Amino acid sequence: MKKYIFSRRAIIAASLTCLLLPLNSCDKDLEVTPYSYFTTANFFSNADEAYMATLGVYESMSSLDSYGWNISLIFDADTDIEQMSGIGADDWRTIAHYQGISQTTTFYTAWSKLYEGVDRANVVIERIPNMDLFTNGTQAQKDQLNRMLGEAKFLRGFYYSELVRLWGDVPFKTKSSQSGDNLKVGLVDRYEIYKQIIKDMQEAALVLPEETPKDERINKWAAKAMLARVAMFAGGYSLGADGTTKRPSNYKEYYQLAQKEINDVMAQNPYKLNPSYAKVFKNQCQHVLEPTENIFQVAFYNPAGTLGNASWVGNFNGPATANGVYPSNISRCLVPKPFYTSFNAADQRRDFSIATYSINNLGNKLPLLTTNQDERWTVGKWSREYQTNATAERVYTHINWVIMRYSDLLLMRAEVENELNEGPNAIAYDAINQVRKRAFGGDIQGSRIGITLGNKGTGYTNAANVVIQITGGGGTDAAAAIINLASGGIGTIGMLRSGDGYTSAPTVTITSTDGKGTGATATAQLLAKPTATVINLPTGLSKENFLKAIQQERAWELSGEGMRRADLIRWGILGDKLAETSTAVKAIRSTYFYPSITNFVAGKHELYPYPQNETDVNKSITRQNPKY
Fold this sequence. Notes:
Layout: H1 8-15, H2 47-59, H3 70-74, E1 83-84, H4 91-96, H5 105-127, H6 132-136, H7 139-167, E2 170-171, E3 187-188, H8 190-207, H9 220-234, E4 238-239, E5 245-246, H10 251-268, H11 277-285, E6 294-298, E7 333-334, H12 337-341, H13 348-353, E8 354-355, E9 357-359, E10 365-367, E11 378-379, E12 401-405, H14 406-420, H15 426-439, E13 449-453, E14 466-471, E15 479-486, E16 489-497, E17 507-512, E18 522-526, H16 532-535, H17 543-558, H18 564-571, H19 574-588, H20 596-599, H21 612-617
Antiparallel strand pairs: 1-7, 2-3, 4-5, 6-12, 8-11, 9-10, 13-18, 14-17, 15-16
């Protein structure tokens, strides 16, 4: 189980580091100690105090305002693979549907959280080198403090990289806020900020530990992996102040940096893919740390369901679930049907990532496979059925938000090699095929299953009350449900998940929760494992076609994980993909819900507007992002 970096005590102590900052981001009722107290040598007088301040830098990530909801879930929609449900004035809807404006509150809360993290990092970066222990302590103390200094530098770089990704040119400070400072600084060109981000992350990697982490703290290899991502975004397309979307003329230099950092990581081989794609997310839901798969993640811990570090992962973004066996959820993250049909049917990621069902109060899956129910398909990776369902997680959860997984790094490697070599080389093919092999179950024994209806039975009155149980066979995750009845018997069975790892045909039992109906039978069959020809990409692809393959593979592998909209922007194809998806859903039915195509404006929505709460007080921000 995961070893939380945030205990109840640590949440309170880390949160008190906001008292270091003369900002309005902290609640007034916490400001009980004069700011001047923390400018003296009384603070950071020992390693424990430095550690609490460093936790405070991490803590800015662990909030609904940042990665517990806003940045992770809302800011990644709407795209070709996910969209928010419904129309309304809620921020999470207006932002997702490209209707957000500068007055939209959520923009300001996310902006403030990222800058809170920057300023907390600045405090740590300044104070630790001035500690007596930093110079005169034991080697163990010096190593400990250097690690914290590296963490603060990495996190400052990370927070700035997110600000640039979301807003472009932003205010930039590398000095902590002091009483009397001018906090109203103007916009700085994003590429100047990227220079400092790269410097911070490079310096951090020099002092961070190489060992596999036992908690959510960053290590050397994760810092390098994240630096590679930053470099790829710096070298990608972005919307400039002049309203044009372009990549920098020296973009290949950024790709070369990404290549170097990725090669450094791969040479040490600290990561590996979990053989089971499904197990990755089950582990996340069960709070099992998996640092060889999950490279960088945000810690969430919410004692008693009320205090600090709240997350809506697994509540906001799971299949619709009625309160009963599992806690209910609000199920807002929808998956357009064309994304589902883009998968190869043998790709095990399809049925695990996309829930084509809801869950009733008895814990049974109800298929959404008729009429227009395909408009209610949702993200499935963090379903309530995989969670602990502890009392403290009935609303908010403790599920960590994973910012980068190893498969992401492999796909980045393939993309970088393709770009720098003007086409895919052996390294690029190997990287993407590793991801595909796991996706098709090539790394585990056994296979998927199918189910065939035998006797239809008689006396059944409601398909929703008929339950298909699949037991044995050595595998997991297979699920099926009754789509409809015919003359009192079973009409059609639909596979919801074909599962993986079955080494023999499991037993299929059909029962009825209301006691009505009898005699229906079905049998399961093992499905043939995909061959290497199916799994591996075709050789000989051009640079352009290999890039398209990577773009599609990232959708299949990383769906719902917070990166799709950002990826589409850095490739310069967000508008194209929205239009393509709109055409595809309208071909299914003219009324298919997909509002973004009406609202999206190219040359505008690739960036968010500067929050009016900020521009009202900071007159040094003299312009708004294009078309807002």
